[in-house]
Amino acid sequence: MTSPIDAKLAELGITLPTPTPPLANYVPVVRTGNLLFISGQVSIDGAGKIVTGKLGAGVEIEAGREAAKLCAINILAQVKAAIGDLDKVVRVVKLVAFVNSAPDFLDQPKVVNGCSDFFVEVLGDKGRHARSAVGVAALPLDAAVEVDAIVEVV
């Protein structure tokens, strides 16, 4: 039987990728009690192509939103790898998003909405979360966006 979340992903034409292994000395997910702490997921698609560049310096807001959505997809892939079943998600608690930004770029929240909107679309009210949207001078691999998450599970 297909879970409601898997069915919603299929309806949207989204296949969760194999989670990206860590690029350094850390683990992708730490579980403590009913919380999963998901390490930062960059804007990389299932084929391994990274959405790169700076918002406000060659990367437009809509492309940034799509990059942020990729981060959300990768977060769900890490969650599924950790717990096996996305229906065990109780709530996305908190997101911290980093946007590779030109010095005068001020629309980080609009970019990060690509991630937030995706979680709500797929998870409904369980996808509503607290969040921070931070502009940074650079990200690993020149990624356009990186997002880490705290997710409550059963």
From TrEMBL:
Pfam families, per the entry: YjgF_endoribonc
SUPFAM superfamilies: YjgF-like
Domain Endoribonuclease L-PSP/chorismate mutase-like: 8-147
Domain of life where this protein originates: Bacteria
Protein name from the UniProt record: Endoribonuclease L-PSP
Coiled-coil blocks: none
Source organism per UniProt: Xanthobacter autotrophicus (strain ATCC BAA-1158 / Py2)
